[in-house]
Amino acid sequence: MQRTVPAGPAHVIPSSAPGWAPVWGLPLAAGLLVLLVGYLAAAHRPEESSVALWWPVAGVSVGAYAVAWRRQQRLTVLAALALGVFGAELVAGYSPAASLWLALANIADPVLCIGLLSRVLPDLRLRDARDFARFCTAALAGVLATAAIAATPVHLLLEADVWTVMRAVVPSHLSAVLVIAPLALLAPRRPAPAGRVETTVQVTTLVLVTLWVFAPGQDLPFTFLCIGFLIWGAARVSAPVMWSEVVLVAVIGAVTTTWGWGSYAAAVTAYRLPPETMATLLDVMILGVPLAVWPLWLAMDVHRASLAEVRESRELLDSVLEGATGTAIVGAGLDGTITSWNTGAERVFGWSAPQVVGLRSVTALRTAPAERSLDALVAPLLAGRAWVDQDWECSRADGRQVTVAVRVTARRSADDAVLGWIVVGEDVTEKRRTERALQDALERERQAVQRLEDLDAVKTAFVQSVSHELRTPMTSVLGYTDMLMEERAGDLNDRQRRMLTSVARNGRRLLTLIEDLLLLSRVEQRSPTAVTERLDLRTSVQRGCEAVAPQAESASVRLATGLGPGPTPVIGDPDQLERLTVNLVGNAVKFSPAGSTVEVSVATRDGEAVLTVSDRGMGVPEDEVARLFERFFRSSNAQRAEVQGSGLGLAIVKEVVDHHDGQVEVESAEGVGTTVRVRLPLQAPTPTGPRAHPDSTRADTTVGTT
């Protein structure tokens, strides 16, 4: 019977097999390779020699440790390298103690070399000859440390001379590091130029020459021939091929010399030299190979990269020049002869490149012969300026005149020598025409504004003059009216007294209007006769309130003032500030119903002196509040109520506030009332403080009647 298994969460058991390669692949490969090459080098060392002829283990160790450094596998790779060297030495016939000591000594080489190199090249990549020199220095430090450590067990356990061992170990290890390790450190920038055929011919020739140099019975010192063919490869082949050639030369030399072939073995036999001498001669030759090859290969790689960048820059420049169809870019030699002419120049000037290149001077593009001096054009550039901007009037090929805005710069070499000139231009004919039209319009506007200002000044002077002329006779009229009302010219009947009262009332209204016009003109003109002094704002406000008190009493309006406990110092004209108060409080009284209260207060807030006047009168419609400070403006509800006024009171307030660098604010609602706030800059009080009005120290004062 088939059973149904209830569904549930799936449990996947991870397999450990697929993940071993990324973690253990490098240590295992490095350990096995070191074991193999170490055994071959140690087991096939010359007879009676205490050290190997060439020690490729050093190069493999440094290269593997460099890769491990980037992969964060340093400890596992070091352990694998130590085990590999220990096994190789043990299998080759060394004692366990000597094998262990030599294994530990070999670890010092990659640790010290890569550790030092990473301080100057964090990514462990060789990109030029300077990087290779740093690598050589780090490798030498690591090899010296390894030789010093390895010499002790060889001397104690194998009874070999310390200095002889040092002379053999240092070149054998250093040459191996410089030959093998670069494979893990090189960072090629560009592909090599050699193709397959050239690479095959070059490698084959090098191998044949190397085999001939180290052939049996060859006692002539022709090893330098290998260097010549390696230099050929350094200039042409890729990094992997170059590395393979260097390793091939080293391996062929080491193997054949171990077999007793070549000039080095022949020299040791002929002169009965110690076997370590043969190792030293071979290692010095192998050491010369990377020292000659890798700096040249790196220099050629940098050279190829630089040439590629130059080609790309030139192609980009050509593309820009051809793509700049709206901008003329013209190149010229030192004598001004045109050397390059882009599509934009053809479009701007109308001439094709064959018509001008090498045939005309760049200054000949200008219409006026007097402006064609090249020396005058480039003199500022030769004096140190970066560029020269000019407008050129030019004749196109079709005869049309155009205005071209040009910028002339010098074309310089790497040593800052002037090679020629670059002229970049743009057709600005329409732009300049528009600019001239705009300038003409602005000039007409300026003249119109000046005429308006002159008219306004004439108007102000006229109003001031007329007001002065009206005030004198009006004062006389009011004076004689007062004398008549006092019955100095005889008794008056009731009808005559009513007529004189009407004359006096309207005369005073007219005199008030005249005074307002005079004050407004003085404030507008910033009259130099205006008094500017340090004063207590409360004094001017108190005097203004006292001046309005009779009006408030007549209208049965209560006038409540709160002037604060301390002085309120400001800089200003006391008469103007008093008039400001009279206008604000007078307006509030005029528009307030009988029995209401007008509140006047002075306070300090946020570095400002604040004068506030509030009433509970008819208020102002919301859409008319913004126009309250316009001259002769009167609100619609005031006109309907037939409240008398000239419409200049608040305009004068605004001018006085502006004259004192202050601000004025209005809050009003129809049928509710109006609040006006005047803000003036507050001055720092002096030790004694400004002199206050005798009544200004009262916190609250009530003027008028209820």
Automatic annotation (TrEMBL):
Subcellular location per the Swiss-Prot or TrEMBL entry:
Cell membrane
Q: What is the designated name of this protein?
A: histidine kinase
GO CC, one annotated term: plasma membrane
In the UniProt record, does the keyword Transferase occur? yes
Q: Where is the PAC domain?
A: 388-440
Listed under catalytic activity are: ATP + protein L-histidine = ADP + protein N-phospho-L-histidine
Cofactor annotation:
a divalent metal cation
Location of the Histidine kinase domain: 465-684
Question: In terms of domain of life, where is this protein from?
Answer: Bacteria
Q: Which organism is it from?
A: uncultured Nocardioidaceae bacterium
